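quick one
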Amino acid sequence: MTTLDEMDSEMRGRDFMGEIGDTPYYALALCGEAGEVAEKVKKWLRDDRYGPMNTERREGIRDEIGDVLFYLSRLADSIGYSTNDCFTAYVAKSNRRRENGTQRGDGDFR
Ligand SMILES: [Mg+2]
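structure w/ magnesium ion:
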């Protein structure tokens, strides 16, 4: 598998949490992995003061971003959408806000 769509197809139907469903598990895992990305960036700040990023640090962050993408994709799939569906919805929302001049402000439906 080389794309998120291929992974969705391969993973679809796998059941981790049984009758309670996988959606909460994936949402929590996504937050955990996003925290791991932030932790590695924090260590770059703490240890290198945002100096030049070495290969080991870049690859560590890359790997955690991969974990984020995995759980993001699984979360989307668990509610019946592909990652592409979610990105398409984001682009439509972003375009609508730009056209309406509502990029700033509050509310999901501005
Ligand atoms: Mg991880």
